[in-house]
Amino acid sequence: MIAQALTAAIAMVFAAQTTPAADHENNRNRKVCRQDQSTGSILPRRICHSRSEWAAVLEKQGDDTNNALVRRGNNKIQPFQN
After folding, report:
1. For residue 18, how far is the Cα from the chain centroid?
2. Which residue among 8, 15, 36, 39 is least packed, with the fewest CB closer than 10 Å?
3. Distance CA 29, CA 50 (A)
4. How far apart are CA 60 and CA 68, in angstroms?
5. How far apart are CA 62 and CA 45, in angstroms?
6. Mean pLDDT for the stretch of residues 2-29
7. CA-CA distance, 46 to 78, in Å (whole number)?
8. Cβ(30)–Cβ(50) under 8 Å?
């Protein structure tokens, strides 16, 4: 009886532990909310994305900035690189 309870308790402890890969995946999928102050409004807007989505948004913004600088012909500024 005691051995069964002990075995069940140990099984629950091992089942509750997560692997580092699972922790990393949970961290990437965790929602992060930021406030954005849009032009013409005094109230900030709350925008929520996962960490991986925010990384994609920031990468796209960097690409857009580089493209604007290239189109402008401003060769003195080095392109944004991660």
Report:
1. 20
2. 39
3. 5
4. 12
5. 22
6. 62
7. 32
8. yes
